[in-house]
Amino acid sequence: MDGITFGDVIVLLLAGLFGGAANALAGGGTFFTFPALLETGLPPTAASASSNFSLWGGRIAAVAPQWRVIDIRRRTVWMRILIALTGSAVGALLLLATQDRAFLFIVPWLLAFATVMFIFSAPIGAWLQRVLSNRAHGWLQRLLEFGFAVYGGYFGAGLGVMMLSVYAVFAELSPAVANALKNVVTALLLTMSVAIFALGGRIVWPAALIVLAGAVPGGWLGGWLAMKVNPLLLRGIIGLLAVLLTAWYFYKAYGLPA
Question: Which domain holds residue 187?
Fold first, then answer.
């Protein structure tokens, strides 16, 4: 990115505003922030890393009131945190090792995966609960947690839906505790990946901080709108945007002449 223009600042602020609001309302904030960072000139891997950082603050803020919901003395909770941190580190290191040119061809598939998880989160979650409810499948639960954590460290769009779908299968966890655990683990997971991206020099700080400046009031706005707007309508709008973005990036990666 050679320099940030006034137009770029407006685009990034709006992306942060909508992304922060989306995460507070229905999820899917990455569908706003990542494309905006990419289209304003950031290299693809830097756009992904910077997007993760810009939305990370909102995740941390959401965790503060939820620690008390989780019994952190439980060995299974610490095991899930360890799995998430390890997977996130692997995913972040994989992103650092990915060439930007290769990542451009991977992005459409990542967006497609995130879009499917976002739109069909309810049936996918129900299917996972049926599959994983048998305790004999404990190894599969851990494998899914690790795989989702790797994905979260590498890209992260739709991560919350994935983690909640796994945590919800445990009969000893109430929905409130499962959601709190998802938020805490996701925040810690993203903290790990953001730290690795920062140490690896992959975050473009001026652009990321502009998006963050929009995401903070966006999160507040989303919390206010949550009491006034039908969340199903919002999920439908964000889902449509995700489909259009996925189609556009498939076209850019595979449909345009060199």
Answer: 6-255
